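Annual report, structural modelling task.

Input specification for the 1,3-dihydroxyacetonephosphate complex:
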Amino acid sequence: MLSDVKEILLRAQKGGYAVGAFNVSNMEIAQGVVMAAVEKRSPVILQITESAMKYAGAKEIAEIVKVVIEQRSEDIPVGLNLDHGKGFEIAKKAIELGFNEVMIDGSRLSFVENINLTKLVVDFAHKAKIAVQAELGIVPYLGEIDLSDLDWNKLMTDPIKAKELVEKTRVDFLAVAIGNSHGFFQELDEADWERLEQIKNLVKIPLVLHGASDWSREKITKAIKGGICCFNVDTDIRLAFVHELHRATDEKCFITDPRKIMGLARDSVKRKVIEKINLFGGANKV
Ligand code: G3H
Ligand code: 13P
Ligand code: ZN
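The model returned the following structure:
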């Protein structure tokens, strides 16, 4: 059932485990995620980006995902987040479409602009009892940063500024940069655990780690101890879905019924999400 994301993450914070936030862009991926959450009895967050909205149609994808949650999640708490919203209008639109968390990503703006934008969204969202996630520091994407000029210290979250941003905006969750990156962009060999510890001590709200697809069990465990309550996973879900499509169409190219192929891809997503839930310690938390 669609449930308060603040409650979901505060419970994870208290319980010393993390919740997966999985990117979804079609019905089968959304179903695979929810089916896994139900089987493992784990809270889960489904999230949609602006580019997924452009691909599917904002209302269409929002309605599909909401119906999947309504029809399949039983008593499992499920959140619906706007991932990497870049401005006030898209955050407002997501709230109107029924999302119950919005991420406002001002991480590429100046510190002051990030605070101002985040505060604008928080003030609006909180009136509607919607939780907000901000980001401070840069979690890079492949192609965004010149590799010859890569200085992780310039990208990572400043703990003192994190405290200031949280106090000034009253944001509910904070996405941190501790050497993590999106997709296949090379990460810092060892995450900056000391920095995470400082952020956790200064900022009491649940912390979110983006780019978690390629994080090992060891790193995940350390991150949870360091205060991470939510891991964002997109690339691994895409791979699970697309690899299965390739496999199915290579080996069984005589299949003409798309449902027979998409169903296999949905099962593959479900298996991958189960793997992640086990890694994050979220099983049997409902
Ligand atoms: O960080 C967010 C996603 O991995 C990028 O997703 O291609 O849907 O914008 P997108
Ligand atoms: P990955 O694609 O690296 O899993 O990152 C996902 C993410 O951070 C979505 O916001
Ligand atoms: Zn992200």
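The pocket of 1,3-dihydroxyacetonephosphate (ligand 2) is lined by residues 23, 83-84, 182-183, 210-213, 232-236 (CB under 6 Å).
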